[in-house]
C-alpha cells in the first residue's frame, strides 16, 4: 500500500526538498500549500528531479473546513503529517505580530483537530533553534532552557511546540519536533532552491547575490562579538540533509507509543563564523565577495551550534554534505536563477 504523507507547506524551501526525499524513499507525498510564500512551478521542478508529479492541493489551513475536506477525501490513507506551513520572516513578524500568531497557531490547531478527528497520529513539526535564544552552553542540547523569544516569529515556534506537547498529553498523537539550525544550499540538480521575493533575509543568499554583482557589498553585522574572529557563529546545514532527517523523523514517530512528544536538534554540530562562511565561499567558487563590517543586527545571538548526538543516536540522522558542498550548491542555484 502506498505510504501517503500529508506535507503542509510542501512547496516551500525545506518542504519541497523534503517532498523529493519522501518520493526517493517510496512515500507518496500529498502537498498542501496556500502559495503565500511559494510558487506552484515548484511542482514542475520536483517532477523534473523525481520523474513524478506529486499530488498538490491549494489549501488555506486557517480555514478548518478546507483542511477537513483534505482529510475526508484521503480517509484512512494518510500515515503521517509533516507540518512546515508557517509565515517565517523575523522582521515582518515584529511589524505584523497578530498575522504571525493567527496564521501559525491557527494552522497548527486546525491540523491537530483534523488529525484527532480522522485518527492520524504521527506528526513531524518544523521548529527552530531560535527557541534556545543565546544559549548558555555550546554546543546546545535539547535539554537547554528555552529562552524568551526575540521576535513574534520565534515565539510562534515556541508556542506551537507547547501546543503540540499539551495536545500529546490529551490526545493519542505522536509528535516529533525538529529544531533546525541554519538550513542553506539547494538541490544538487540546481533545479530547486530557495526562492526570494525581494531582498534576501539570510546570510547565504546575500553572499551569492554579492558574488554575482547584484549587490556591491555584503554587510557583516558586527565584528566585535566574543568569538574567534569577532563575527557571529552559526550551525549551517545542507537543506537536503535537513530534508532527509524528516523521513527518519516520520519513521521514528510512527514507531512511538501514542501520547508521545520528542524533540531533536537538526544541525551539523559545527559552528562557522560569518567570515569563515565568506572565505569558504570564495575558496569553493573562486568568486570574490566584497564585504564591510556594519553595526550589529538587533536580535542576533552571538553563537549557536547543535549538539546533534540525540538525533544521530535515536533518528539515525547523518549529515552527508559538508560546508563546501552547501556553498557550491547555493552558488549553482543562484546562477540557475539568474538564467531564468
Ligand atoms: C534567522 C532568524 C531565526 C530563524 C532563522 C531561519 C534572526 C535574528 N534570526 O537566523 O529566528 O529561525 O533565520 O529562518 O533573524 N548576517 C550578516 N549579514 C547579512 C545577513 C546575515 O552578517 O547580510 C549574519 C547574521 O548576523 C548571523 C548570520 O549571518 O550571524 C546568519 O544570519 P541569518 O542567515 O539571517 O540567520 P540567523 O540570524 O541565524
Automatic annotation (TrEMBL):
Catalytic activity, reaction form: UDP-alpha-D-glucose = UDP-alpha-D-galactose
Cofactor list: NAD(+)
GO biological process, one term: galactose metabolic process
Keywords: Carbohydrate metabolism, Isomerase, NAD
Keyword Transmembrane in annotation: no
E.C. designation(s): 5.1.3.2
Pathway(s) per entry: Carbohydrate metabolism; galactose metabolism
Domain of life: Bacteria
One Gene Ontology MF term: UDP-glucose 4-epimerase activity
Keyword Endoplasmic reticulum applies: no
Pfam families xref list: GDP_Man_Dehyd
EC top class, as a word: isomerase
One GO CC annotation: cytosol
InterPro entries: NAD(P)-bd_dom, NAD(P)-bd_dom_sf, UDP_G4E
Gene3D superfamilies assigned to the protein according to its UniProt record, in alphabetical order: NAD(P)-binding Rossmann-like Domain, UDP-galactose 4-epimerase, domain 1
Domain named NAD(P)-binding: residues: 6-328
PANTHER family associated with the record: UDP-GLUCOSE 4-EPIMERASE
Subunit structure: Homodimer.
Family assignment from sequence similarity: Belongs to the NAD(P)-dependent epimerase/dehydratase family.
Protein name: UDP-glucose 4-epimerase
Organism: Marivirga sericea
Amino acid at each position: 500500500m502506498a505510504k501517503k504523507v500529508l506535507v503542509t507547506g510542501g512547496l516551500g524551501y525545506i518542504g519541497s526538498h523534503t517532498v523529493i526525499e519522501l518520493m526517493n524513499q517510496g512515500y507518496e507525498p500529498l502537498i498542501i500549500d496556500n502559495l503565500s510564500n511559494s510558487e506552484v512551478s515548484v511542482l514542475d521542478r520536483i517532477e523534473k528531479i523525481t520523474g513524478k508529479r506529486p499530488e498538490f492541493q491549494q489549501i488555506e489551513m486557517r480555514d478548518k473546513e478546507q483542511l477537513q475536506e483534505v482529510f475526508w477525501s484521503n480517509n484512512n490513507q494518510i500515515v503521517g503529517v509533516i507540518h512546515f506551513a508557517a509565515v517565517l520572516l523575523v522582521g515582518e513578524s515584529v511589524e505584523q505580530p497578530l498575522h504571525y500568531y493567527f496564521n501559525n497557531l491557527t494552522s497548527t490547531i486546525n491540523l491537530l483537530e483534523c488529525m484527532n478527528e480522522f485518527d492520524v497520529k504521527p506528526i513531524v513539526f518544523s521548529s527552530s533553534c531560535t527557541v534556545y535564544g543565546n544559549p548558555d552552553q555550546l554546543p546546545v542540547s535539547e535539554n537547554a532552557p528555552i529562552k524568551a523569544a526575540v521576535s513574534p516569529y520565534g515565539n510562534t515556534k515556541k508556542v506551537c511546540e507547547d501546543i503540540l506537547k499539551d495536545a500529546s498529553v490529551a490526545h493519542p498523537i505522536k509528535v516529533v519536533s525538529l529544531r533546525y539550525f541554519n538550513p542553506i544550499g539547494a538541490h544538487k540538480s540546481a533545479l530547486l532552491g530557495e526562492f526570494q521575493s525581494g531582498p534576501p533575509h539570510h546570510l547565504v543568499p546575500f553572499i551569492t547575490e554579492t558574488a554575482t554583482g547584484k549587490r556591491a557589498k555584503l554587510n557583516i553585522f558586527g565584528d566585535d562579538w566574543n568569538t574567534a574572529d569577532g563575527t557571529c557563529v552559526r550551525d549551517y546545514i545542507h537543506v537536503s540533509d535537513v530534508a532527509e532527517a524528516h523521513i527518519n523523523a516520520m519513521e521514528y514517530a510512527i514507531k512511538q507509543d501514542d501520547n508521545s512528544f520528542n524533540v531533536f536538534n537538526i544541525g551539523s554540530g559545527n559552528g562557522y563564523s560569518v567570515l569563515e562562511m565568506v572565505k569558504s565561499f570564495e575558496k569553493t567558487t573562486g568568486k570574490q565577495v566584497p564585504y564591510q563590517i556594519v553595526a550589529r543586527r538587533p536580535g542576533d545571538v552571538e553563537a549557536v551550534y547543535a549538539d546533534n548526538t540525540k538525533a544521530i543516536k535515536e533518528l539515525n540522522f547523518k549529515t552527508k554534505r559538508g560546508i563546501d558542498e552547501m556553498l557550491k550548491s547555493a552558488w549553482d542555484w543562484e546562477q540557475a536563477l539568474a538564467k531564468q
